[in-house]
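Notes from hallway chat w/ T.B., transcribed later so I don't forget. T.B. wanted the structure written out for a chain they're using in a teaching module, and asked if we could keep both sequence and structure tokens in one place. Agreed to drop them here.
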Amino acid sequence: MSIEITGDLTYARGEEGSIPVRLVGEMPGYNGPTGDGDDIGNGAILIWSQGGRVVDLGEYWREASYEIPPALNETGEWTGVAEVPPYSSCIEADREEAPYGYDNVRAAGTYQVRAAQVHTVGDGETELLFSEPVTVTIP
């Protein structure tokens, strides 16, 4: 399986955003939602880095996106978006820590951004996919 970023980031400081992504491959062993948590296709998140150092991991996995496995098994691809929260999950600020990250806007600058996706199917084997990076500048 593979993941790739297929378009431009829609994002403004202090606001939510998204970037289009495509997953290619199959999820053999997927037989539909079982309710026991072992058949999951998770939505993509973004990993932000500067100078080779990860500075933000996004908010959290968008778990149990049950549209992904059937799309992959029927057509070999799924297209959707990786969502971008309005704040950084890793860089501390002068404000109180929020439930999933720090309540501050992502700093202006140039970043290398990768999409990441994780899924678990069947016997519990987990795969973690990363896209090639794209350069994004936040004014």
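Follow-up for T.B.: The longest helix spans residues 68-75. Might be a good example for the class.
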